[in-house]
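Need tokens for this chain, all 168 residues.
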Amino acid sequence: MSPFAPKGDRSLRVIVAEMVAERSPGDLLTYEDLGKSLDLDPDERRDQIRQAVSAARPIVLTDQKRALIPVRGQGYRVAWASEFAGIAQEHRRKADRQIGKALDIVKNVNEKELSPEELKRHRAVAMVITNLHTRMTSAESRLQQLEEAVFGSPRPVIQGEVERDELT
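Here are the structure tokens for all 168 residues:
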């Protein structure tokens, strides 16, 4: 059963989104609650519950302005608005790693094994990825310099938390 498969007249992702709409930040959606609503055994079909939650995330984010944070072995917690910046930073950090991996791949191809057309395409892709990596690195450096100018020396960052006195 896919996360889009209907349970009655509603898809599993819509059911999850509706469950989130009924919750407040900080509330926990347990695997048991999700399983009951989705008519899935949380112990036997946890993978399908995860798929349904994953499919519901874009709906929850855009329509309800909510995000879900996995809680190991329990389910998902509805994120507080103050955690969104940390969640975004985590996605950016993962993207940085992926760009680094892409850069390693394009730098380490055996060009002798490529046809002229493949080589041309490969070099074009390599140029785009290299430029993207350079721009991201440069932007991070400028951001760090600005933060140091405004806040002083680098401070430790706790993912998902914002210092309240700086917001007022």
